[in-house]
Amino acid sequence: MRPNPSIESDRAASCRAVCLLAAAILLIAAPPALAGWVKIYEDEGSVGYIDPATIKWVDGNLRRVSELLDFKRPDSQFKGELSHRFLVEYDCKKKLVRVVSVTGYSERMAQGRITNTAEPKPNWAQIDPRSRHANQLRIVCIS
Q1: How many domains, the chain?
Q2: 6: Cβ–Cβ under 8 A, 6 or more apart, which residues?
Q3: Same domain, 120 and 87
Q4: Beta strands of 1-143 (E only): which ranges?
Q5: Are residues 43 and 53 located together in one domain of the fold?
Q6: DSSP reduced 3-state for 89
Q7: Would the pTM of this model clear 0.85, i.e. be above it?
Q8: pLDDT tens digit string along 74-124?
Q9: Which of 36, 41, 133, 136 has the fewest CB atoms in 10 Å of its CB?
Q10: What residues make up the domain containing 25?
Q11: Which of 96, 88, 140 is nearest to 119 (CA)?
């Protein structure tokens, strides 16, 4: 008995559709460590990243971005956390920064269990032109 080409092409099309759906689900559910984190600084105690895909205009001169701080050693101030993920706003015109929220993680790259969440009073702070935030401001406001 000869295989029916129509049935074979339908089967191949179904397989492709299932594979595409599975790939889409994996991309949507990808953990933050697989997201587009870009290293923007490193010092003796930590490495900082931003996710350029999260840069959004909020209002007027305000931009919002997800940032990640990966500790080289467990942070003794915060329950031994190995990373913090921040939602940060920048005022591009006035050169100000404020943290909207912070989440602590037990593992690097915002992985593991969530150990802490906070929404601090988002006070604006002037950005020192020599600080790491000055570089982040340039990246966020130019994008």
Answers
A1: 2
A2: none
A3: yes
A4: 38-42, 46-50, 56-59, 62-75, 81-91, 96-107, 111-118, 125-126
A5: yes
A6: strand
A7: no
A8: 877 777 899 999 999 999 999 999 999 999 999 999 999 999 999 988 899
A9: 36
A10: 1-30
A11: 88
Q: Are residues 25 and 76 in the same domain?
A: no
CA dihedral 18, 20, 23, 25 (to 10 degrees): -70
136-139 contact pairs (CB < 8 A, 24+):
136/40, 136/48, 136/50, 136/65, 136/67, 136/88, 136/90, 136/97, 137/90, 137/92, 137/95, 137/97, 139/40, 139/50, 139/52
Per-residue pLDDT tens for 19-67?
Answer: 333 333 333 334 444 458 999 999 999 999 999 999 999 988 999 999 9
Q: Name beta bridge partners: 37.
A: none
- The answer on 134 and 73 residing in a single domain is yes
